[in-house]
């Protein structure tokens, strides 16, 4: 998210001469600072697209690559569905979504999401029972880049690029104030009408709710009942701050519209553990944000949805405001995002029934049904009277009852 109005604006206000320097740097495509290309630390959109296709092609038993839309610029919107037998769409498996790159300039979020996907595949291939359990009971969805068009502009040297590059009348198309597009994290339904209607704002909400193909595409995907049965938890990975946000994102809305007490308590448990694992706070940001993905996911699906704002300073320009520029810091930041995501996928965060338990419960129910039918008075001339030894059905009875001691695990 990281609409850090206070930082660039603060710099401008501290001294007029800086305005000239700063704008000159931006006009030159941030030549004075680090750029995506010069950093050399991040996969490009094209590289991630090739990588995602390869990951799915070489792991068809656990990875399915889904195109859920096409951008205004004609680029594919891609999601990786990672679970055992991903084409089966098992309704018993709750879905988990991890997404990065909603804001074009936040390369570290995309990097974190795609490395999480690789981490899950590598862990499963290693034979680890932890990963086996996750992918057999959970339906994981990962979107490394939610904003391909904006991302490609950013990769071309515009380190300030945040929006989706979908031009609306009145938006400058050249120079330092290049600001084409909509802020995709203001285009979602929750209180969209309260977000900025000014086309030149960095947080422009768009002409209507879900006006943008990136937002509409994801919304359609999440409502596709053949793919999503219950979106249990989600993380939208951003950068520029170091905090874990849960609904409601806006500091003025958060206290004014409290969540139900048990839901709030669960959110707090999850957020506090994610905070421990990352070192990030759980504090609200200093500005209101409406139309965000995270708030909309909670409002629409009841999802335990978080915005994870990652940041490792210091910053010296727009690129470093959002992205680490040395490999060690990049890797440490990615590792934190992976750790918090793996926690949400763990039994510690959500107890999800093992498939074996589901099978046993179903088997027990069938057994009880069979025993009950056997005890009905036999229909003469249709079913021959062949009495079974009494002890056999009793033993089956006891076995069936035992399995029904476990349904409490379905609470999550
Ligand atoms: Zn962001």
Please summarize what this structure is.
This protein is α/β, with parallel strands linked by helices and 412 residues long. The chain is 42% helix and 11% strand.
Can you tag this structure with a few keywords?
412 residues; disordered C terminus; disordered N terminus; Aminopeptidase; 7 strands; globular; seven-stranded mixed beta sheet; single chain; alpha/beta; 15 helices; binds zinc ion
Description of the structure:
By secondary structure, the protein is α/β, with parallel strands linked by helices. It has two domains: 6-344, Zn peptidases (Aminopeptidase), CATH 3.40.630; 355-410. 42% of the residues lie in helices and 11% in strands. The chain is built from 15 helices and seven strands. A seven-stranded mixed beta sheet has the order 1-2-4-3-5-7-6, sandwiched between helices. The longest helix is centred in the last third of the chain and has 21 residues, at 355-375. The model is unreliable at 1-31 and 376-412 (pLDDT under 50). The structure holds zinc ion. Zinc ion is lined by residues 1-2, 103, 106, 238.
Give the low-pLDDT segments: 1-31, 376-412
* Biggest β-sheet description: 7 strands, mixed
Structural class based on helices, strands and sheet pairing: alpha/beta
- So, CATH architecture of the largest domain? 3-Layer(aba) Sandwich
Bound molecules: zinc ion
* CATH superfamily caption of the largest domain: Zn peptidases
CATH class of the largest domain: Alpha Beta
Q: What integer is the average pLDDT? A: 83
Number of E-type strands: 7
Could you please say which CATH topology of the largest domain applies here? Aminopeptidase
What's the overall geometry? globular
Count of alpha and pi helical runs: 15
Helix content: 40-55%
Order of helices and strands: HHHHEEEHHEHHEEHHHEHHHH
Structural domain count: 2
Indicate the radius of gyration in whole angstroms: 25 Å
Q: For the terminal residues, how far apart are their CA atoms?
A: 28 Å
Share in β-strands: 5-15%
């Amino acid at each position: 998210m990281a609409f850090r109005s206070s930082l660039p604006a603060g710099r401008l206000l501290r001294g007029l001469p800086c305005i000239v320097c700063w704008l000159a740097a931006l006009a030159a495509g941030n030549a004075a600072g680090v750029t995506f290309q010069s950093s050399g630390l991040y996969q490009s959109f094209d590289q991630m697209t090739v990588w995602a296709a390869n990951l799915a092609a070489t792991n068809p038993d656990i990875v399915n690559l889904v195109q859920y839309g096409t951008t205004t610029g004609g680029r594919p919107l891609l999601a990786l569905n990672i679970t055992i037998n991903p084409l089966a769409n098992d309704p018993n498996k709750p879905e988990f979504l991890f997404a990065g790159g909603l804001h074009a300039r936040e390369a570290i979020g995309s990097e974190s999401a795609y490395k999480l996907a690789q981490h899950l595949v590598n862990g499963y291939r290693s034979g680890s029972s932890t990963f086996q359990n996750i992918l057999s009971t959970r339906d994981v969805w990962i979107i490394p880049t939610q904003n391909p068009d904006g991302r490609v502009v950013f990769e071309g040297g515009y380190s300030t690029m945040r929006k989706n590059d979908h031009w609306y009348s009145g938006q400058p198309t050249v120079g330092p104030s290049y600001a084409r597009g909509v802020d995709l994290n203001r285009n979602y339904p929750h209180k969209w009408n309260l977000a900025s209607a000014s086309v030149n704002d960095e947080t422009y909400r768009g002409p209507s709710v879900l006006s943008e193909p990136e937002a509409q595409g994801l919304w359609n995907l999440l409502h596709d009942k053949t793919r999503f049965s219950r979106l249990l938890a989600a993380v939208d990975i951003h950068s520029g701050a170091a905090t874990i946000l849960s609904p409601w994102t806006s500091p003025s809305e958060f206290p004014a519209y409290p969540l139900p007490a048990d839901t709030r308590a669960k959110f707090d448990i999850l957020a506090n553990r994610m905070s421990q694992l990352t070192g990030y706070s759980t504090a609200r940001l200093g500005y209101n944000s409406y139309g965000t993905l995270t708030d909309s996911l909670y409002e629409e699906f009841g999802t335990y949805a978080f915005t994870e704002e990652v940041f490792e300073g210091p910053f010296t320009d727009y690129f470093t405001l959002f992205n680490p520029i040395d490999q060690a810091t990049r890797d440490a930041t990615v590792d934190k995002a992976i750790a918090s995501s793996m926690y949400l996928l763990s039994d510690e965060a959500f107890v999800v029934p093992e498939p074996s338990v589901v099978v046993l419960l179903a088997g027990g129910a069938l057994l009880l049904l069979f025993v009950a039918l056997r005890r009905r008075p036999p229909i003469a001339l249709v079913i021959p009277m062949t009495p079974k030894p009494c002890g056999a059905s009793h033993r089956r009875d006891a076995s069936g009852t035992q399995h029904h001691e476990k349904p409490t695990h379905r609470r999550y």
